[in-house]
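Order emerges. For instance:

***
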Amino acid sequence: MKKRIFFLICMIVFLFGIDTLFFRKIQFILPNESPWNTNHFFNFLYEYERIRSLPKIKKRIIIVGSSVAYYSIDARSLEKTLKEKFALDVDVFYLAYAGNSPLYVYLLLNWLAPLGPDLVVYPVNFIDYRLHRTYVLFPDGRNDTVDESFMIRDALTFGEAPQSLWVFPWETLMEVGSEMDTETLSRYIISSSFTFYRYKDIYEQNLQNLIQHRFGRNTSYHSYMGVNIPEGVNGLGWTGKQFSFFPTHKMEEKGIWLEVTPYLLAGSTCKLTFSNGDTNQVVNLKDARWTNVRLDPIFFREKKQITATLERVWYAHEATGAYLDYHYDPMGVRLEQTFGLELAKSGVQYTREPRTEDYRYQGMDDRTYTRYFYYRLLEGLDKRPGIGYLVALKLAKERIRKEKFRPFFHFQYLQKIADHFRNRNIPFLLINNPENPISLSWYEDSDWYRDHLLFLKSLDSGSVHFWDIHDVLPMQGFSDFHHFTYAGMEQMNSIYAERIGNLFPK
C-alpha cells in the first residue's frame, strides 16, 4: 500500500514537473517565429514573459486591449516622438490581442503589477463591447433589455473567447465561475491546474513555424514575414507586377518558391523576367501551383538588387474559390513566407510592417472610398462568410441607435478597471478611439451614443483619464470600421504622443 502511494506521489510530482518545465519555461525560451497578427494568444503570452524578464530601467507605458489597440499605436514610433517632443525616455509595450474585451482586460490587471507600469493606455471601440452578439443570439432582442446572464455565458464560449480557457482560466473561474455549467466548470478547473491542457491548442503553432522555417518550403502560411519588397507586398505575400530583392545564399541553394494562380496564366504561359542591370533571365511560368524557380548562378557573383517583372497581372475580384477577394489591387505571384531571408525573423510578435493594402486608399476622395468601403467589406456574404461579423456589426449599430444606453456587462468591467487604477493611483488613459466616419454615421447622432460617451466620461477622476477622439481620423486612414491602415497609424502617432506626453509631470 505504501509503495502504491509513493508511486502515485512520484507520478504526480513528475507530471507537474514536466508540465512546469516545458509548458511554463522551455516553450518561452525558444525563439518565437509567429508573425504579427497571427497566433494571437501565444504571442501575447510570449510577450508578457519577455517584458517580465526585462529589468526596468525606464518608465513604462503598457498598451492593453484588442486589435483596436495594436492597430492604432506603433510602440517604436511613440517612443521616438515622446523622446523628441517631450524629452520622455520611455519603454512602450503591448499586451493586446484580437478579440480582447473589457472582461478580459479586467482579468489581466493583476498580471500588470510585476511589470511596474507608469501608465496604462486602453483604446476601445464599439467592437470591444461585443454588443452585436445580442442580435446574433436573439434576432428580435435589444441590448437595453437582454438578460445579462445570457451574455455572460455567451462570452465564456470557446468560439467567442478562447483566451478565457487558454490564458485566463483561473481568473475567469474566480470571476464568473458561478455562471458556468458543470462541464464548462470542469474544463476551467483542469485548464487552471495543468498548463499542458491550457496551452495544448496554441503552443504547437510556434513549433510548427520553427520546423517549417528551417526545413520546409515556407509555402503554407497566413502572414508574410520575409524581406521588405520596395514595390510592396500584401499581408499574404502577394506581389504586384514587379518585386525587387537581393540574392541570398539560401536562394542559391534552394531556389525561390512562388505561387502561380490560373488567373495569372490566363490559359497560357506567363513570362517572369529577372534582371540586375547586367544579367537577364526569363522564366516561363506554366503551372498553377507553388513553383520552384532557380536563378542563374551569375546573379550570385555579386550582391546587386534583382528586379523581377511579370508579363501580366491578375485581379482577385475576378477570381473564384480561395483566390476571390473584393479589392482591385493588381496581383502577381505569392512569395514564400520567409522570402529573401537567410534566417526567419523572430521576436516580431508586436512589430507591424506596412503592406500594399495599407496604402490603397491614399489619394482617394470620400465618394470613391465610400463606394469601395461598401463593396469590399459588406458585399458578397454568401461567397465570403468571413465578413459575417462586419455585417453583424453594421446591423448592431443601426439597431442600437434606437435603444437606450444601458451600462451592463462589459461597461461594468470598464468601471472596475477604472476603479482598480484609481485605487492604486496608477495613471490610466481610457481612449474612445477613432472610428471610420462611414460606420460612425450609422449611430453617432443617437441618444445611445451620447449617453455611452457620458458614461465613459464619468470614469474620469483621480489617476483615471478619459479621452474622446472618435472623429479625428478621416476615412482613408481605416481599413475597415475600426482598424487603422499603416498610414492611418502613422498619422495618429503625434496625436497620441501629445496626449500621453502631457500625462507625465514636467
Observations:
- The chain has two domains: 34-146+346-506, 225-343.
- Residues 423 and 463 are 9 Å apart (CA to CA).
- The mean pLDDT is 92.
- DSSP finds 20 helices and 14 strands in the chain.
